[in-house]
Amino acid sequence: MEVKKLNRLKVVMAEKDLSNIWLSKKLGVSQATVSKWMTNFSQPNLETLIKISKVLNVEITELIRTEEVQIEA
Fold first, then answer.
1. Which residues form the HTH cro/C1-type domain (predicted)?
2. How far apart are CA 17 and CA 26, in angstroms?
3. Which of 22, 26, 28, 46 is exposed most, by the fewest CB atoms within 10 A?
4. Is the pLDDT reported for residue 72 higher than 70?
5. 10 Å Cβ neighbour count for 12?
6. CB atoms within 10 A of CB 67
7. Cα 60 from Cα 49, distance rounded (Å)
8. Cα separation of 41 and 38, whole Å?
9. Predicted TM-score of the model (pTM)
10. DSSP secondary structure string, the chain?
11. Under CATH, which architecture does the 6-61 domain have?
């Protein structure tokens, strides 16, 4: 069984039924940048995380808390 870290930004976006395009427009960043965040290729800096939390109307802790999920191979 494999353990992976859960991408909290991706989870919150899915819960709110929001798209990468929507977030990129709200933040003034490229869709590619948001896509990298969603796939854990890169992570937003603290200043950007604060902006994201405000745009999504969530506490910043919702975006940075860590969770692990077990995936059966």
1. 23-63
2. 15
3. 28
4. no
5. 17
6. 10
7. 7
8. 8
9. 0.81
10. -EEEE--HHHHHHHHTT--HHHHHHHHT--HHHHHHHHTTSS---HHHHHHHHHHHTS-HHHHH---EEEE--
11. Orthogonal Bundle (1.10)
Contact 26, 33 (CB under 8 A): no
Residue with tokens 């975006």: 63
Query: Pairing between strand 2-5 and 68-71?
Result: antiparallel
Structure tokens at 16: 């709110």
29-64 per-position pLDDT tens digit: 999 999 999 998 999 999 999 999 999 999 999 888
Half-sphere exposure of 56 (CA within 13 A, CB side): 27
- Look-up of token digits 């990129």: 24
